[in-house]
Amino acid sequence: TDLDAFITGLPKAELHLHIEGSLEPELMFALAERNGVSIPFASVEEVRAAYDFSNLQDFLDIYYAGANVLLTRQDFHDLASAYFARAAADGVVHAELMFDPQTHTDRGVPFSEVIEGLLCAMEAARAEHGISSSLILSFLRHLSEEAAFATLAEAEPWLDRIEAVGLDSSEVGHPPEKFARVFAAARDKGLRITAHAGEEGPPEYVHQALDLLGVHRIDHGNRALEDPALIERLVREGMTLTVCPLSNHKLCVVDDLADHPIDAMLAHGLKATVNSDDPAYFGGYVADNYRAIAMARRLDRDALATLARNSFTGSFLPDEIVAEHL
Ligand code: HPA
Ligand code: ZN
């Protein structure tokens, strides 16, 4: 349709994408076989049928189980290559990929295998698809501060190839303040900062991400809308929110996509963006997210273009490169 062509044709940056969340069931089976790893599913259909979540933790349990098939740098390369092919087809020209090293190093997979596989695919994506990309090392917030420090230390040899650090996994009960010191250390190393906040957690966690982590953007941020003073602050600071409509629906952050607050965010003057989060688990890549939210909220082309523009101004690209994309 015209809308599909318009959305695909809009140059977009993807700012909120967990590369482990782009593991499609078909690749999960292929890697399970290649690596001799058993998975608790008999078929691709059975995997897809299990993707029926009522909250974030339901999803995380299955997402971490799926990641067990990833063992070698070739696996991480193949995972990211598949993502880049889908992203290119969707009109993504720049992607900032989150990866969860602890999900792999805790299973005995070396950090080097994870990151070298991803970096190799990123280089190929530039050549094959003209997509630029960078890496966001995300700490698992259900694990300890000490474990996050150990992960940052492991990343040391690759810090020139890591753009930012992030914070993901189970939000409630693991507030940003738990990681204030490790984020300060990351900032001292020149890394940019982002954190999931206000997905399931309260507005207070968004305040903490700003005050205690020094974030340059907020991943999700939906629940900031409950706090008018916080909305005003996010607008004043020009803070980007990396919103993920299909994820919000699948994880019951919104009951119905028709009630999604994306246009309310824009109306407040918040710098909202549209992203896929974990596309293999939530039923769509970035263009699917634009299409779904455009239909659900009757967004016009100006609004869609604003969302796409915000994805560049909210990126970690240098200002002069951002300007080239606007
Ligand atoms: N929230 C928290 N942790 C995550 C997510 C998410 O949406 N996706 C992958 N890890
Ligand atoms: Zn996320």
UniProtKB/TrEMBL annotation:
Its EC number is 3.5.4.2. Its cofactor is Zn(2+). InterPro entries: A_deaminase_dom (IPR001365), ADE (IPR028892), Ado/ade_deaminase (IPR006330), Metal_Hydrolase (IPR032466). The record marks H220 as: Important for catalytic activity. Keywords: Hydrolase, Metal-binding, Nucleotide metabolism, Zinc. It is an enzyme of class 3 (hydrolase). Binds 1 zinc ion per subunit. GO terms for molecular function: adenine deaminase activity; zinc ion binding. GO terms for cellular component: cytosol. Belongs to the metallo-dependent hydrolases superfamily. Adenosine and AMP deaminases family. Adenine deaminase type 2 subfamily. Pfam families: A_deaminase (PF00962). This is Adenine deaminase. Residues 11-326 form the Adenosine deaminase domain. Substrate binds at D278. CDD domains: ADA (cd01320).
